[in-house]
Design goal:
Number of strands: 13
Order of helices and strands: HHEEHHHHEEHEHEEEEEEEE
Radius of gyration: 38 Å
Mean pLDDT: 86
Structural class: alpha+beta
Number of domains: 2
């Protein structure tokens, strides 16, 4: 059906507008301006049944977007991240990536397609040429802009086409959930992992160099030994994560030279065990001065006194190194008597 087949009284009223057309060039207007072509009515402008069909099409596209967003969330949760799938002609690809790409793409495409179809078939398509005006709008221009905005809102039929409005709002409201679900890839919540290490009562102290359990006789006065928890091996998947918190410095000091009472109680025959992780930014401490019992972090020169509770005596570190309470088991090997009593390494917001 075309506009020529519709009685004149059923056609929408033409909107009058001035466009300053100049059909023939002359001295005053050297460039001809033929103006806008005659406006042709769309079938949706003259047939309400066609408008309803377009409305249902737009609503269907927005509904598909909502379903695709839900499918994105379901795929993200339900499909294993390592499951392959065969897709012709691509071949074997990751099923999760394929599902997420298809559902997210469908959700975005149908929102865009619905908006475009809405604008092309139901919103007003009358072209209006407006004269250029100064950048600073005059009051009457501002009033005209607001009037045009109200007219545009009215012509969009957003209030009258409730099916389109509701499905569009639904699609736009659901789609951001895809981005929220992606936040899950930031990793699980740390919980209390920052507060605890592998150390627990009964774990033996193992020499990092020889990979053998340590006896008190293995630690000489004035020496510095590095240790790890029993059972932690370099080929373990979580080795780097765990050793970054559980690495130990073991030093033997004459008991008479230990100034801190708790340090002496937590030691064994002058053997003290402290975290190797600097409390400034987490660098491994490796420099020991046996005459003063000071250890130095090579990154920013934070210095700790191991004979006085490993307190900070120089540098940017904010607090002392945590001490691990140790003893000797029935077989004569050094063992932990628990975990550190405070988080190791740099401070964090929840530290208390």
């Amino acid at each position: 059906m075309s506009s020529q087949d519709i009685p004149e009284e059923n056609l929408p009223a033409e909107q009058e507008h001035a466009h300053g057309a100049v059909g023939v060039a002359d001295e005053k207007h050297p460039f001809a301006d033929p103006g806008l072509p005659p406006h042709e009515h769309r079938i949706q402008d003259i047939d309400e049944r066609a408008a309803k069909r377009s409305e249902r099409t737009v609503a269907l596209l927005f509904t598909v977007s909502m379903l695709a967003t839900v499918a994105f969330i379901v795929s993200y949760v339900a499909i294993p991240h390592d499951k392959p799938i065969y897709v012709f002609p691509i071949g074997h690809i990751n099923a999760l990536n394929f599902a997420l790409g298809m559902t997210l793409g469908t959700a975005l495409f149908t929102i865009g397609a619905g908006a475009v179809h809405w604008a092309r078939t139901l919103m007003s398509d009358v072209e209006v040429a407006d004269e250029r005006h100064p950048i600073e709008a005059a009051p009457e221009v501002k009033a005209k802009v607001m009037a045009d905005f109200r007219d545009g809102a009215k012509e969009s039929a957003l209030g009258r086409r409730k099916l389109i409005r509701n499905t569009m709002f639904g699609a736009l409201a659901l789609f951001p959930l895809s981005g929220v679900m992606l936040l899950r890839d930031l990793g699980p919540l740390p919980g209390t992992k920052l507060r605890h290490t592998m150390w627990r009562k009964g774990l033996m102290l193992v020499n990092m160099n020889t990979n053998e359990p340590l006896r008190p006789s293995d630690v000489a006065v004035g020496s510095l030994t590095f240790a790890k928890p029993e059972g932690l091996e370099e080929h373990d998947h979580e080795f780097q994560t765990e050793i970054a918190k559980a690495a130990l410095m073991i030093v033997r000091i004459q008991p008479d030279n230990i100034k801190d009472k708790r340090e002496l109680e937590w030691s064994h025959e002058g053997i003290v065990a402290y975290s190797k992780i600097c409390t400034h930014v987490g660098c491994p401490i490796s420099l020991y001065e046996q005459q003063t019992h000071h250890v130095l972090c090579p990154c920013h020169q934070s210095t700790f006194d191991l004979s006085d509770g490993a307190r900070v005596i120089f540098g940017p570190a904010g607090h002392a190194l945590p001490q691990l309470r140790i003893g000797v088991n029935d077989e004569g090997y050094l063992e932990a008597l628990g975990d550190f009593d405070e988080p190791v390494g740099p401070a964090f917001w929840e530290r208390g």
